[in-house]
Design brief:
flat, mainly alpha, single chain
Length: about 70
């Protein structure tokens, strides 16, 4: 196969993928703006929970630095 044809095929595939992703991003934006997607209101605790092993429950929050 000719090198130029292979490059054109690869570029065509990349272009097609980018167009599909652009439509997906646009759909997600529309759902967010119209309220079609519910966002989580609570966050997981940052200090660890009861699910951690005992050796990991008392770790410092910052490691390193001065």
């Amino acid at each position: 196969m000719n090198k130029n044809i292979m490059i054109a095929v690869v570029l065509g595939i990349l272009l097609l993928l980018s167009v599909v992703q652009a439509f997906q991003v646009n759909t997600i934006k529309e759902k967010l703006s119209t309220g079609g997607v519910k966002l989580a209101t609570g966050a997981a605790p940052a200090t660890g929970g009861a699910n951690l092993p005992s050796g990991l429950q008392n770790l410092p929050t910052m490691v390193g630095g001065c």
